[in-house]
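Bumping with the actual sequence this time:
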Amino acid sequence: MALLQISEPGQSTAPHQHRLAAGIDLGTTNSLVATIKSGLASVLPDDQGEVIFPSVVRYGKDGVAAIGKAARDQASEDPYNTISSVKRLIGLSAEDITESSAGMMFKLEKTDSSVPRIATDAGAKTAIEVSADILRALRTRAELSLGGELTGVVVTVPAYFDDTQRQATKDAAKLAGLNVYRLVNEPTAAAIAYGLDRADADSTIAVYDLGGGTFDISILKLEKGVFEVLSTAGDTALGGDDIDNAIVDWVVAQHGVEVGGNAGLQRTLLDQARVVKHALSTNDQAQFSIQHGELSINSTVSLETFNSLVAELIQNTLKSCRNALRQAKLKKNQIDNVVMVGGSTRVPAVRAAVSEFFEREVLTDINPDEVVAIGAALQADVLAGNKPDSDMLLLDVIPLSLGIETHGGLVEQIIPRNTTIPAARAQEFTTYKDGQTAMALHVVQGERDLVRDCRSLGRFELRGFNPVVAGQARIQVTFQVDADGLLTVSAVERDSGVQAEVQIKPSYGLRDSEIESMIRDSMTNAQQDVAARMLQEQRVEAERAVEALDAAMAKDADEFLDENEKQKIVDAREAVVQSSTATDADSIKSALRVLEKVSEVYVSRRMNASIGEAMKGKTIDSYEKQDSPT
């Protein structure tokens, strides 16, 4: 029988046919688009020769009034219609958003929807719509440069983006008319860019990615062309924007300026802070100078002052580095290379701190602003089918464990964190009560043992299977995570074939630093979680034992027990019920042992009666004939 090769959509091409594909780095502060030309990866410039595209959109009454650099330059004149750092809004609910958490000025429309909508002269805009306008502009740049329509793109996302944020990114790309081959984690894209230049060398790489609005640290294993993410950590709301805000806070404090709700002034201050930050990458001091209305500020910012302002931010990134090493079960001396990614890694203090932490020189061979886009372009070229003989394999991981709620509010992990994706895992569950014909399934995300300490992703129900005794039904639950990190959960009752599924697209995602916090909490509370799980498991066991005992005694206690025996069992049962309200798992276990001991006579008599009923009217010969081979 012949084996047929099945390609990903758009991957198979005819001989000598080159498909136009691109990699897009959709950044918080800036975005870029890159492609492969004559076998070389290059970032595509605009008609002015600029490769960096500011992720800024200004809206007017007729729609997009300006985009990119032009919009950024007009921000202080029209602050509320100029949207920047919109990537920080993806995955948040309207209730979650504040000016400080989003790192931007905006006005929210008051609606009943949980999806935040930004008020502009062009109407209310969601983060997806603003991102789509940015992606549409990048698509136009690529198609004008390449002279044809793009067949597909690879779009990069922070490694810590959850399902909601990833799906929102794909939705934005679709709205922009793009065919997304795959979403790729930004650190992984950087590893592709570096790894292909060193395909003959196996190594372990740390990718330190500090962009405008997000921070990721990923530990990757490069072996014979295979990139595997061993671990990842970071913060979805930490980056260059925070450095700019720190500079502004220092300057206004020095001059006693009250910014208040003056969005235009805030924009002007942030723009100048950005200029100062860039200047201090190569100079010992820089001038902070603005003229806004009657307000005039002219202040010298020294490199020493700047370094003190960013020290805490840098230390926060190093905490994540420690977590990533711990999760990968590696020590610093086992890291072969440290790759710097993101414009904020141009800050000398950042490079020095990271170099000191990993005890080696960091790699900056490829422009840190461009490396992610270049890696995405290389991957897009492969997925488009332009390199059918390529043996490059990309293996990303799941950032947080995925599981399901079981009786008693316990979490049963199906796919542990740092599992390579795409991945599929299945596990069998059963019913809790006799005659049960439906089951509610609750999908959760997190590292803790109790549902209350994890994040709810979605719920669905499996209905209509045959009623049987508790524990007899077999329900197989399957978790499937695709190459983009999106989750589908399905359930099927094996005997009846009844099935149901849900695609996890929660209404909104995690708040700032929540993923890192969830992982940290799981480590801090490990012992308490084990104790809490044991307690809850014993409570569930006690509940089951009492329920089964009550059902049996209601049926035939008078037939098999005298009053003294019955009272002993009732007393032991009450002791189990009372112990279940306590917080000591051992006391519940002890009470269950007592109940089991005093119930032995009852269980034995019921079993003997059941066997006797089954053998009534039959001879030993009939059993021998039944068991003999034919």
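The tokens above came from a reply further down the thread. The domain at 21-239+309-396 is CATH 3.30.420.40 (Nucleotidyltransferase; domain 5).
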